[in-house]
Write a structure and sequence with these properties.
- With about 200 residues, this protein is α+β, with helices and mostly antiparallel strands.
- The strands form 2 sheets. The chain has a 7-stranded antiparallel beta sheet. It has a two-stranded parallel ribbon with strand order 2-3.
- The protein is globular.
Length: about 200
């Protein structure tokens, strides 16, 4: 399923991908890290199983320069994965409370959507270092995972609950922590309540 989604996107003509582009987002401030944070156990297990997906290369840019072409790619991948992956909780899917995966069978929960998006965006040439998995508290008061894109126009969030890439401060979420851009570690974003899992759809 993963290969099919990747092939379908990569096989799309640049003209067709450009049609999905919208105006570049307005510049806004990024979310500030306020110290170290403890990673989720499920992230640590994922990184052991998929070391390349967690690799930290400090020679990569820590920020994405948004152009019309780059923005079109981001919008296209976000929409395609949100449409193409079936939402299911880890408990129903794997019989585990929280498991991070790449939705390789076409199903997954919040973090699986975002990990697959990041994989495809890296394959399209965006720097992994500037795309950080992020833990938030959502509108239901539950742990949730999104993908933060650190850009020259501020921090933008890709989410499986909406296909609109939003500035982080417009999501309505409480931002808890995210992967560091400096090391294989996590940093706090100031939210005081850290969920043990991100296992919701």
């Amino acid at each position: 399923m993963l290969a099919m989604l990747a092939t379908a996107w990569l096989g799309t003509s640049s003209a067709a991908r450009a049609q999905t582009a919208v105006a570049l987002p307005a510049a806004s401030p990024g979310a500030a890290a306020v110290g170290e944070a403890r990673p989720l156990a499920a992230w640590s297990a994922f990184c052991q199983a998929y070391a390349a997906e967690c690799r930290m290369d400090r020679d990569e840019p820590a920020r994405i320069t948004l152009t019309a072409a780059t923005w079109g790619t981001i919008v296209s991948v976000n929409r395609r994965i949100n449409r193409g992956v079936r939402a299911i909780t880890d408990l129903d899917h794997w019989g585990q409370a929280d498991r991070w995966d790449l939705a390789e069978d076409g199903s997954g929960d919040c973090e699986d959507f975002q990990l697959l998006k990041r994989k495809l965006l890296v394959e399209a040439g965006l720097p992994r270092r500037a795309m950080r998995m992020t833990v938030v508290i959502d509108e239901k008061g539950e742990g949730h995972a999104v993908l933060t894109l650190i850009t020259d126009r501020g921090d933008l969030v890709l989410d499986n609950k909406t296909s609109e890439a939003l500035p982080w401060h417009r999501t309505g979420y409480v931002f808890i922590k995210r992967e560091s851009t400096e090391a294989l570690a996590w940093v706090s974003l100031g939210g005081v309540t850290s969920p043990a899992t991100t296992a919701n759809r």
